[in-house]
Amino acid sequence: MKSVIIGFGVIGRVHAEVLKNQGAEIAAVCDTDSSKLSGFGCRSYCDYIDMIESEKPDVVHICTPHYLHADMSVECLKRGINVLCEKPMCISEDDVCRISEAALHSSAQFGLVLQNRYNAANLFVKKYTEINPVIDGFGIVNWHRDRKYYASASWHGKKSTEGGGVLINQALHTLDLMQWFIGMPSEVTANTCNFMLKDIIEVEDSAMAVFSGDRKFSFFATNTGSTDFPVEITLKTDKDYIKILPDAVMLNGELIDFKKDNRILGKRCYGTGHEDLIADFYDCIKCGRKFPIDAGEGGKVMKLIFGIYKSKGEIVKL
After folding, report:
1. What are the E-state strand segments in the chain?
2. pLDDT band at 266 (very low <50, low <70, confident <90, very high)
3. Where are the domains of the chain?
4. Rounded average pLDDT over 31-37
5. How far apart are CA 162 and CA 66, in angstroms?
6. In this predicted structure, what is the pLDDT of residue 275?
7. CATH 3.30.360.10, applies to 117-253+293-317
8. Is 284 exposed, middle or buried (0-12, 13-18, 19+ CB in 10 A)?
């Protein structure tokens, strides 16, 4: 299959490295900043429409800033090109609907990169909780993002281009895992605020949410930590307490270690799931199998995030 990549920053290069390792044909890469394109060893473009019209790829990897994801995904799907899009799926509820509609009427597949679902510890917990349903849970993301981070890209920290702050960028993966393990709640009561970064960003640096209904859990995320602390998820079943740590699970006090020799590609916070997720997406295309993280599945975490942003301390139906 013939592949192209739109957006050739850090995460675009992660996709490129994975594709090369897996023997895929990377026909071209695209970025509006031409300085990122030199020396990669394939054709390069500064306009993605020119690229897809010239190259006629089978798969497009979208690794651009958040606000570009929806238009690019819809355009490619309308042309029958398979799309693998980095998170978030988009930055508005209307765009969730647009992508879902385009995917429904396309001959191609849409896949969203929620790579933490492919980590060994998380796969173990998913299988375990399918047999032993979760009755409550708590998740926490306590990371550090400062002025230097937000200055590294002009679209960071702006509502119109990033879509939000810590929730839609850093904490999305953890929130997605919680609904994947527990199921979708029907209500949320939440607040977001900017504690420490008021003079730097126009979006939230912290958020707290309590989800309720048939499925319930609570969640806290902040970018105000002094460093990046390990993400933690704690789940309660009828008989068990499960704590999920990086590369390990604590089940009723017993540590189960899932650490393996996977290389970290790109930033450490990306984890090790990109290789398995990308391999699965390509296998789905080859075999005619439905990729499990499609627009409907990927849209679930977006519904949670948009509900948190709407809440402002009041109960919001999801």
Report:
1. 2-6, 25-30, 43-45, 59-62, 82-86, 110-113, 134-142, 187-193, 206-212, 217-222, 232-237, 241-245, 248-251, 254-257, 315-317
2. very low
3. 2-115, 117-253+293-317
4. 93
5. 5
6. 94
7. yes
8. middle
